[in-house]
Structures are given as C-alpha cells and as structure tokens.
Amino acid sequence: TLFLPPGPGPFPGIIDIFGFGGGLLEYRASLLAGHGFATLALAYYNFEDLAKEIDSIHLEYFEEALCYMLQHSKVKGPGIGLLGFSLGADICLSMASYLKNISATVSINGSGFSGNRPIRYKQTCIPPLNHDFRRLKVAFSGLLDIVDIRNDVIGRHENPSMIPIEKAQGPILFIVGQDDHNWRSELYAQIASERLQAHGKDKPQILSYPGTGHNIEPPYFPLCPASVHKLLNKPIMWGGEPRA
Questions:
Q1: How many domains, the chain?
Q2: What is the pLDDT of residue 231?
Q3: CA nearest to 89, candidates 103, 105, 66, 102
Q4: What is the CATH number of the domain that holds 105?
Q5: Containing structural domain, residue 23
Q6: In this structure, are residues 82 and 92 in contact, taking their beta carbons and an 8 Å threshold?
Q7: Residues taking part in catalysis
C-alpha cells in the first residue's frame, strides 16, 4: 500500500518493512505520509496471493518495489529511504548492501545477520545463523525467553552469516532497545559498527534506549510485552517497560 502526503509532490520516498510475523501493516507508513514522506508499506509473505510461509528471502522481490518507487511520479529521486523492524530491518540492510539507489537505511531492532532463513540475490546467498533450542529459558511468568538461542557469538563481524553492510551507499541508523528479548539488538548494532569501521567506513549512528524491548512502536502505541512467535508457535517475551 502506497501512502502519499497531500499536495502535488514529489515527496521523498520510503519503503517500510515489518518483521517475521508477515502480513501487511500500514499504520507506520500512513503516519510517515502525514510527515511528508511517500511511503510504501510492503508485505512479503502471509498476505493475499503471497506465500503463506517464508523459506528464504529473495531480494529481487524487494528490488521490484524499489523500482516501482523510483519511477513513481510523486516520488522524488534519485534515492529511496528504507525503514525496517526486526526481520524487516535485516531485509532493509540487505537491500542497502546489494541494490542501487538507496539513500538511507533505518534499522529498528534488526540483527544485521541472516537469521533463520537464507537471504538470496542473484547468485549470492547469505547462509542463516540458525539457532539451538536447548538455550531456551522459561521466565517466571511461564513465557519463553529466546534471547540466547541464536548461534551468533562466533566470528563477530566476520561471521559468514552477516549481511555485507559495508557495501551500502547511504548512511545507516540503528535504533535498539537495551531490553530486547528477541535477540541482542544492542550487541548486534555494535558488531555492525565494528564491521563498517573494519572496512574503512564511518561509525554509524546508534540510538540505544534503556528499558526498551523488541517492539519499538510510534509514540502513544500500546506496548506489546509478549505474544506468540511464529518460529516457535508459543508465547515469548519481547522485553521492555511501557514508559521506556
């Protein structure tokens, strides 16, 4: 769904991508259009004629959306901004790494890795980190805590499952919650910063919020502290305090 601000335009363009839950979420894109951005809310599975499940992420699909935005008469080029949350953030980081005409990328609690599914573009494939369910913990409430299940400690910024963000053209902003229980977003942002600097790039901007969990929503939205995770089909904790 494309949301356009009032007026003749053209407007700066954004592609807005959400996480592993799939479907089409429009509220953030509509709010951004109210602030002068032509914003495309982009579903990539579990919606209408798209696949119900996701076995791998093919960047050609997202490239098509990028081309659509670049040729739209109401969208001001020459580049498009990307805004992603969780898995959507990792898709945005992959797009910025492999596709042209991306002017800036915002990652909200992304990981910078190919997590549970391989990321593919043409002949390139980033293998998934995968996970070990033996590291699951059960909180006092009975909710599952999955923060430690990923195989992410080996190799740091040289891990083969890491997205090659040093190839990105525009700046990258990392927004992270220090109490994220989906994965260690703050650590991942630091590893991403290490990788960029190891390749001679500038240190990226990282906004790190204490007491804040995985779900960072627009202002005044209710906090979702726990819900059923599609990977496990069980209720897990996302972390975070309401005020934070």
A1: 1
A2: 82
A3: 105
A4: 3.40.50.1820
A5: 2-130+154-219
A6: yes
A7: 86, 180, 214
